[in-house]
Amino acid sequence: MAKILVIEDEAAIRRVLVKILSEENNKYEVFEAEDGLSGIEKIKAEDYDLVLCDIKMPKMDGVEVLEAIKKIKPEIPIVMISGHGDLDTAVNTMRLGAFDYISKPPDLNRLLNTVRNALDRKELVVENKMLKKKVSKNYEMIGESKAISDIKSIIEKVAATDARVLITGPNGTGKELVAHWIHQKSDRSKGPMIEVNCAAIPGELIESELFGHVKGAFTSANKDRAGKFEAANGGTIFLDEIGDMSLSAQAKVLRALQENKIQRVGSDKDIKVDVRVVAATNKDLKKEIAENKFREDLYHRLAVILVKVPALNDRRDDIPLLIEYFAKKISGEQGSPIKTFSAKAIKQLQQYDWTGNIRELRNVVERLIILGGNEVSEEDVKLFAAK
């Protein structure tokens, strides 16, 4: 049941609001405050889903109450109650963060619709926060080895800046994970994180994918289309496997980095973009440069900060933690009890040659959870995790 606080100094209006809301099919639990100061004290002491607040009140007016609530509990939607002469102020309160306003005397339908919409908005905000926490957990970096500790330290230092980052390392080591951590810990985390797998896009389409195109730019361009750089405006673009990008596309990316401008394919109009670029590759870009397959000037633009993600064979001390993490995650996904791994099973897995790195380890853990005993044993590892 949603909890609503009515802050109103006029007793008659307050009683009307409480009566209307309390009788709405037992959906709402309604509380009262006769002035702004007592309302603020109640909000400090209790959690409410919605506040209705009068604008003109003694001791503390509605605008001051609104500003105070936004500092104390910014997620609470606030609907202002305005008299005839308060309409301009009511409109201004929406600029300060109020959800909406209703006029005195309150119209029944208008009041109930506004309350429902405000509570729906609150629910959506809560769901988005939970989703962000869930996403953040999905990109958690697991490990206590020196290599991983060094990477975490670099991320802590670089995330708050707009410095470009180049992430290198073999396939399956978690380069994407590092990119997401940089974005989530940055000031751009409220903006989008747009991923582009440069290896998965045909060479003739990569420019359109990155920069967009205008209608008629090529045969199948039936309408204008924004590219990934525009979609990432205000956030981060992650160029995965950038070593596979064509030289032509590299030249355009270089211009975007130099000037913070792009041009859609088929257009000569500049579009300003505010994008942080994080790139990753499993290739030796210096070798690619020597073979004229990668632009040296682009490399130096991208590699302001270099992060090298180690192979799993170089961080075997982290394998027990990774096994525990994957076991819990996989069991949760399957809705099954969490299986433990015996000490001998873990030691056996630590001795394997993990050519597929963390991605391979996860697959093996899943296989052992499905096929192994209640506690995964050394024998289970020999039977089901054979290389």
UniProtKB/TrEMBL annotation:
GO annotation terms (biological process): phosphorelay signal transduction system; regulation of DNA-templated transcription
PROSITE patterns: RESPONSE_REGULATORY (PS50110), SIGMA54_INTERACT_2 (PS00676), SIGMA54_INTERACT_4 (PS50045)
Keywords: ATP-binding, Nucleotide-binding, Phosphoprotein, Transcription, Transcription regulation, Two-component regulatory system
Positions carrying 4-aspartylphosphate: 54
Superkingdom of the organism of origin: Bacteria
Residue span(s) of domain Response regulatory: 3-119
GO molecular function, one term: ATP binding
Keyword ATP-binding: yes
Occurrences of domain Sigma-54 factor interaction (ranges): 141-370
Name under which the protein is recorded: Fis family transcriptional regulator
Annotated source species: Aquimarina atlantica
